[in-house]
Amino acid sequence: MDPLTVPGTLSSLEPIREYVRAAAALSGLDRRRGYRLELAVDEIATNIINYGYQRAGKTGNVEVRAEIHPDVLTVILEDTAVPFDPLRVERPDQIDLPLTDRPVGGLGVFLALESVDEFRYEYVDGHNRNIMVMKRMAA
Amino acid sequence: MAFTVTSDEKNGIARLTLVGELDASAANDFRTAIEEAAGLRPKRLVLMMGGLTFMASAGLRTLVFAKQKMGANVDIYVIAVQEPVRETLEMTGFQHSVIMLDAYDAAEIEDL
Hints:
Chain A is an alpha+beta fold. Helices cover 33% and strands 26% of the residues of chain A. The chains are: A alpha+beta, B alpha/beta.
């Protein structure tokens, strides 16, 4: 699919999800797995916008690109925000705690990593590249 | 799809109806509704989620905020949650801290 480029602001989350939903439908992912990919992309995009751009005082775009391969659907988010590798985030230890004892937040990256079949991160030429892969035929 | 939250309160039960997609851009609206509901000092918080088609971690964060703002003895009911959102709640252990029902059960919820 042609890539979609949107400004790095929270109002871009909805068009990003719509793009991913269209890619999931085109590649034949079922509703459950399509939703999981949509959630993962939304969480990573939220992190890029909130932390990589806004809290760092930077502005820039987010590009989302879907590649439909015979076996997998790959969605790539690319941005010029502060370098951030989601794979280096520690798994939260709050999952077993009652809500009264939890920190507020810290679940977005966890949800993203748990929701996709494969997650890769690259930092190339000043660009973060978050790569999320779903198998088209679920095992 | 835009997110909307509507509120009502009756006999100590604060009820919020969530519709649409609850992402990070919409979480402030949900949080504001929670703060307003908390101000009424309800005995129970009921979240009608049948029309909620998407919920990101920003929504989870607001649920944690709700529990901590209202206190451990205010039960939170999650009603008619759609399957993908239920899966998110279960992946993150929220099902142990909220009461999930398939439909609004007045006999259970209004028995204070």
